[in-house]
Amino acid sequence: MAQADRRGPGRDGPLLSQRAAIVFLLAALVGVGATVLAALAGNVWPVAVSVGGGVVAPAVLFFNQIID
Fold first, then answer.
1. Which residues contact 22 (CB under 8 A, 6 or more apart)?
2. If DSSP codes are grouped into helix, strand and coil, which group holds residue 21?
3. CA pair distance 31, 53, nearest whole angstrom
4. Distance from C-alpha of 32 to C-alpha of 12, rounded to nearest angstrom
């Protein structure tokens, strides 16, 4: 769906659309949740952060598909 150009003369538009911001926010929350759960499961912090980081990309793809 095409969006109208909301920029006025001399003004910049938003960096992200609302949809993209929601997708990235939800993916970040999933990553933080996975990190906390991995840490609570007894993994050391570097492993827990790696697990959380590895979950973010599939979460972006998932939320991009379901939010329309």
1. 63, 67
2. helix
3. 6
4. 31
